[in-house]
Amino acid sequence: MEENVFITAEATEKEVKMRLDKYLAQKIDNVSRAQIQRLIENGNVMCEDISITDNSYKVRLGDSFVVTVPEPEEAEPTPEDIPLDVVYEDSDIAVLNKPAGMTVHPAAGAYHGTLVNALLFHCRDLSGIGGVKRPGIVHRIDRETSGLLVVAKNDTAHRFLSEQFAEHSIERTYYAVVYGVPSPLDGRIEGNIGRSPFDRKKMALVASGGKFAATNYKTLQTFGSAAALVQCNLETGRTHQIRVHLSSIGHALVGDKVYVKNKKSEIPLPTELKTFVNNFPRQALHAKSLGFIHPRTLQFMQFDSELPADMAELMQRLNAWQKA
Predict the structure, then answer these.
(1) What 8-state DSSP symbol labels residue 84?
(2) Same-domain status, 56 and 191
(3) Pair 102, 115: CB distance under 8 Å
(4) 306 by DSSP, 3-state: which?
(5) Which residues belong to the active site?
(6) Statement: the pTM of the whole predicted model exceeds 0.85
(7) For 86-108, how does the pLDDT look when each residue is reduced to its tens digit (9 = 90+)?
(8) Residue 42 to residue 226: CA distance in whole angstroms
(9) With b meaning 16 or more CB within 10 Å and e meaning fewer, what string describes 199-213?
(10) In sequence order, what DSSP letters do the residues of 16-33 get, joined into one string?
(11) Are residues 81 and 52 both part of a single domain?
């Protein structure tokens, strides 16, 4: 099987000190920066016969790079006939309403029943993305988070959408039900998010390292002092961002088994409703709307989804108590 090999021209003075991944993404058409990063990490980029595996390598004057892009190969995940809630689809993209409980990517312990398995069955017109014939997962939402996400069906769409995510120009709105009522009701939370130094399975706001993250929130409805419905708009897209940020101001998501505080049982609600809220089976978080520029038409597209049944029931019970 042949490979595609790209050789860049010598770097100019204006390109000196650019990050290698950014530099190559500008030089090679139809390959996203995320794909470039994987190629670098996998040893597919050479400079003067030396393999460069550091994405942050600073380009030097006169540097020329040889980039080897493997031909698409068959995907390891197997197609599975799993129903999908397809909100929109064309030859370039698919917008899906993911249910809570579905993992996006196959991984250790979850090789089947994932969104990728379902997409491989559903999408028969995929081209090679990242060296593999598979749906292009441009962004993820947590397994227990429901809601909208967009998938690329070819390399061009993958690169175009990835660039929008890298530039933070994608519009994403989430609805969350949290313990307590935020004060102030509306605000902006920012701070670098990285692995918790105390628990490697958790993310946390970190004093040094990590990646900058910013979340704008707006309280849409309150239920006494017990809980609130909060709208979150992401400026960035870090792992567990909303869960970490809201928890950091004392308002963990209902149902969150990782970031919730032990004081959740103290919420001022009737016993039956308190039990229902405290035993909500997953974090009450829904990716409600998604907006982006279409990779082919260049038109802005906006999608919206209703709350899923479990969160709708949670809201209905809290509303009924509020009105009683």
Answers:
(1) -
(2) no
(3) yes
(4) coil
(5) 142
(6) no
(7) 999 999 999 999 999 998 877 65
(8) 50
(9) eeebbbbeeeebeeb
(10) TT-BHHHHHHHHSTT--H
(11) no
